Amino acid sequence: MATDNQSNNTDTHHESPNKILDKGGDVREGEALDTKAVSDWLRAQGVDIEGEPRVTQFSGGASNWTYRLQYEGKGNAESKSQDLILRRPPKGTKAKSAHDMVREYTVQKALKDAYPYVPKMVALCTDESVIGADFYVMERMEGIIPRANLPKGIDLNEEQTRALCTNVIDALVELHQVDYKKHPDLVNLGRGEGYCERQVTGWDKRYVKAKTPNVPSFALVRQWLGKHTPADSKTCLIHNDWRFDNVILAADDPTKVIGVLDWEMATLGDPLMDLGSALAYWIEEDDNIIMQQSRRQPTHLKGMMTRDEVVDYYLEQTGLEINNWTFYEVFGLFRLAGIVQQIYYRYYHKQTTNPAFKNFWIIVHVLHAKCLKLIAQYEGEILFTSRVQPHLQDMGVDAAMIEQLPTPIQAVIKGILPKSYFGQNMPKAEK
């Protein structure tokens, strides 16, 4: 499906292919790889490699560490070159479920025959004596990864941009249609019915645990989600981190999806939860400046579907029906707020000094405002004001906190929030 909507005009870039392909950079300080140990282990698994590899590392750091291993070989039939990718968890990782190499490897290996966008797995190592952690190796898929902006030199017109957008959504639809019951390793991922309820309960607890004094409580949002949690629409294999920067595009046709990466959170669950979580990252051309500055994918380009168009298209392709899409959209934004806040919590408590995380608390405020706006639209402004809002004991604390934000940020958030959110006699925010 995801290759059916290709543009007729594939002359979309002027740079040489090598300049637009996704590449790694220098290995970051403190994250060096013991290449001799890896090479010796690969040979013991029967992998045909010669010498030691040239090693580069892909950007990231909050997620698993990813290295490219380029073995040159001798250029003959007996000794071919090998271009491999190694994935391992960060050092000192305690939450193994978030960096489970065995799970990530197993999912991709089981999926390979049923879903053509998965890289070919080479080998899995669970012997921590090799490099100090579990890791796996796969073949590199050469292509383009669309991040916040398309690589310099790729200029898609609106028709081509729409084709790219459609193909990315089609690849998600195709994943959700995989018959996981034919693959025992995929069946074992599931925990049965109640996925939506488990997700709402789980992220509620995670957000409360990660909250810092300078972010909203999300109490109304958490309360509303708990009261409106639907039964699972169906159970299927979901990616759980679906973004443009987790897909690989063909170098000769940047509208064509050839690969999907980062399967560490894949599980069996509700496909509408997967879609709602994906759309939390979907920043449109006219979204506010704070969301534009935090954008991670090129969904702002002319020709991209809007979030509403994505939902309509997905439902048309899958035949699923929704009684309350607002729930999935609000959940996706709340889940993203939880992810951002977990990262900011580490910065706030000086567990990391990465300056990129310094202003993440501002993003949490904006996501909170977006959630409240959607809830007010769903309930109706009058019902929101008269029934939903008064039952929230600390609504005033959240609203008073906004009054203390820097003026430009305040303006953005007030432009999103329902006007009734700012009532009289509000208690002062906690310092």
Written overview of the protein:
α6 packs parallel to α11 (325-348), α7 (219-228) runs antiparallel to α11 and α11 runs antiparallel to α12 (360-379). The strands form three sheets. Strands 1-2-3-5-4 form a five-stranded antiparallel beta sheet, with helices on one face. A two-stranded antiparallel sheet has the order 6-9. A two-stranded antiparallel ribbon has the order 7-8. Mean pLDDT is 89; it is low at 424-431. The chain has helices at 17-20, 35-44, 101-111, 158-176, 184-187, 195-210, 219-228, 271-279, 289-293, 307-318, 325-348, 360-379, 381-388, 395-403, 407-416, and strands spanning 54-57, 65-71, 82-88, 121-125, 135-139, 236-238, 247-250, 253-260, 267-269. The chain has 15 helices and nine strands. It is an alpha+beta fold.
Features:
single chain; 431 residues; disordered C terminus
Shape verdict: globular
Q: Which H/E pattern describes the elements?
A: HHEEEHEEHHHHEEEEHHHHHHHH
Arithmetic mean of pLDDT = 89
Share in β-strands: 5-15%
Largest sheet: 5 strands, antiparallel
Structural category is alpha+beta
Task: Count all strands and give the number.
Answer: 9
List the SSEs and their pairings:
Blueprint: H1 17-20, H2 35-44, E1 54-57, E2 65-71, E3 82-88, H3 101-111, E4 121-125, E5 135-139, H4 158-176, H5 184-187, H6 195-210, H7 219-228, E6 236-238, E7 247-250, E8 253-260, E9 267-269, H8 271-279, H9 289-293, H10 307-318, H11 325-348, H12 360-379, H13 381-388, H14 395-403, H15 407-416
Antiparallel strand pairs: 1-2, 2-3, 3-5, 4-5, 6-9, 7-8
